[in-house]
């Protein structure tokens, strides 16, 4: 192998770009963390969506959410006229949500551990699919029974700007670029921070096409 080829190999290996950035007292960004897993995650994701397809949940005031959503794991986050909550049954299929792949649970547990959150065993994975123009306004994740565990959020496909705000809606937010294979973790003093994402911009990703998927791992119950 020529030395040029060797350098090329090193720098084209996405694993080389793995990096941990602390964004706030209780928030960490793991850059390119899942690059080596994304092809298998994509296959597992499509299998899950065959069983429990993406759908746009209705908010309690009757609007459709901008993103398409589904779940896997024991508990799925849902929304309808009755409010936001966790359900063991997919309201679309009237069957339990697909099981959370073991590899997914492990990656979420390991990522949390890496930044100091022990014993995080998620029982819920919300799947969101963003198409061009889709966004999510500032909100808190507060439908879980306890807030001792962090949120582990995996980004796949096209990049998006994540907004990390404060503990009140009116506080200024920092912008965090989330790219394919990044993992964002927030917990502890940041667990109830307002957050959201800005509109997805047009693009084409080699595996995920014109979309961005987000997997949000939580301990719901
Ligand atoms: O798509 C994201 O990165 C954030 C999603 C989110 O905050 C949620 O589903 O509660
Ligand atoms: Fe959220």
Automatic annotation (TrEMBL):
Gene3D superfamilies the record matches: Alpha-ketoglutarate-dependent dioxygenase AlkB-like
InterPro entries to which the protein is assigned, alphabetical: Alkb, AlkB-like, AlkB-like_sf, Oxoglu/Fe-dep_dioxygenase_dom
Gene transcribed to yield this protein: alkB
Domain Fe2OG dioxygenase: 121-221
Domain of life from the UniProt record: Bacteria
Matching PANTHER family: ALKYLATED DNA REPAIR PROTEIN ALKB-RELATED (PTHR16557), NUCLEIC ACID DIOXYGENASE ALKBH1 (PTHR16557:SF2)
Cofactor binding: number and manner: Binds 1 Fe(2+) ion per subunit.
GO cellular component, one term: cytoplasm
GO BP field: methylation; oxidative RNA demethylation
EC number: 1.14.11.33
Residues involved in substrate binding: 77, 84-86, 143, 169
The keyword Mitochondrion belongs to this UniProt entry's keyword annotation: no
Keywords: Dioxygenase, Iron, Metal-binding, Methyltransferase, Oxidoreductase, Transferase
Organism: Nitrincola tapanii
GO terms for MF: broad specificity oxidative DNA demethylase activity; ferrous iron binding; methyltransferase activity; oxidative RNA demethylase activity
Residues that hold Fe cation according to the record: 139, 141, 195
Protein's name according to its UniProt entry: DNA oxidative demethylase AlkB
């Amino acid at each position: 192998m020529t030395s040029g080829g060797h350098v090329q190999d090193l720098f084209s290996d996405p694993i080389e770009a793995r990096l941990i950035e602390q964004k706030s007292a209780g928030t960490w960004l793991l850059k390119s963390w899942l690059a080596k897993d994304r092809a298998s995650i994509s296959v597992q994701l499509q299998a899950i969506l065959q069983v429990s397809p993406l759908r746009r949940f209705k908010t309690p005031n009757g609007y459709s959410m901008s993103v398409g959503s589904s779940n896997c794991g024991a508990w799925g986050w849902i929304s309808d006229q009755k409010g936001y909550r966790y359900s063991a049954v997919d309201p679309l299929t009237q069957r339990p949500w697909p099981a959370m792949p073991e590899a997914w649970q492990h990656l979420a547990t390991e990522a949390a551990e890496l930044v100091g959150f022990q014993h995080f065993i998620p029982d819920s994975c919300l799947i969101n699919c963003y198409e061009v123009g889709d966004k999510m306004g500032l909100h808190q994740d507060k439908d879980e029974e306890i807030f001792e565990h962090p949120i582990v959020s995996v980004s796949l496909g096209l990049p998006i700007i994540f907004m990390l705000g404060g503990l009140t809606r009116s506080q200024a937010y920092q912008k965090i670029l989330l790219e394919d294979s990044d993992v964002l973790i927030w917990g502890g003093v940041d667990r109830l921070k307002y957050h959201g994402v800005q509109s997805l911009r047009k693009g084409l990703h080699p595996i995920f096409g014109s979309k961005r998927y987000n997997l949000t791992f939580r301990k719901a119950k």
